[in-house]
Amino acid sequence: MILWKRAAPLGLLSWMIPFVISFAAFPLKHVNAPLFGNLMSLVVLLTASMLLNRYFQNRPVSVSEAVLVGALWLAINLLFDYPMFAYGPMKMTVWGYYSEIGLGYLAFPFFAFGAARLARS
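and the corresponding structure tokens:
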């Protein structure tokens, strides 16, 4: 069972932390786009690891709960992110957004699955 009062605020942080870092590192995208992309992938993974650790603090780790929390965070990230890129200053197409940014948020449930399985073994 998901602890909604814990998962939702952490989900907001799962969006806010990479967003703030990407905003600060955005000039790098013009100089070296692949480096920027790799850096942001690492930021998302590090954010996922820190927030999952916080979510399961003082609780037993459940694989199914971890995947559900990761899926919730995926949904939160898409909910907050996509309108900004579809209608905001970036003006990306749906395909452009999901291929460049949105697909990377699958790291949350995939990482949660692997980390929870590792924690359980």
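(Above: one complete record from the training split.) The helical segments are 4-31, 33-55, 63-87, 94-100, 107-120.
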